[in-house]
Amino acid sequence: MVVAKSxxxxxGLVQLFSKHDIERKYEAIAIGALTKKEGIITSTxxxxxxxxxxxxAHVKHGKNATTHFSTITNFGIFQHLEFKLETGxxxxxxxxxxxxxxxxxxxxxxxxxxxxxxxxxxxxxxxxVAEYPYPFLHAKILGFIHPITKEKLHFExxxxxxFKNFLNLAREEFTP
Length: 176
Prior knowledge:
- The protein has a single domain (about 25-175), classed as Pseudouridine synthase (2-Layer Sandwich).
- Helices cover about 25% and strands about 30% of the residues.
- It is built from five helices and seven strands.
- Strands 3-2-4-5-1-6-7 form a seven-stranded antiparallel beta sheet.
- Strand 2 and strand 3 form a beta hairpin.
């Protein structure tokens, strides 16, 4: 989250976001097998005409959206992925993962079939995430040049404990 303390700073941040001069990297755990280790997804994204709570790619009046993805670890039935955004559309990563990669994010009740996802996980992994109500998507890096001071700002945050615990348990279960 970015907050401006002055009107001038707010205007500068608006310009940075509109020009896509913000570095944003995310980590996610997605269910499914990928055919490519990395790539770029480009589409338009807008409100789903059949469900106002969701966004959808290639809808009338959608806005351009570009997402770069790469595989950090392939666990076969699920993936640890990194996403880098060029644009910042609502639910952009979740829509691109589900519609283009065919790998919805773990515990994404809006874009994924969570009961089906759980059936694909081991009992230990199921127990770990059974009550977790959020998609496994972590905002890892935010970077930009401050619009007033011109200082380069870079913020990096470790994933939440449940995210790290899931990956550690997955490594134990999927490492020969």
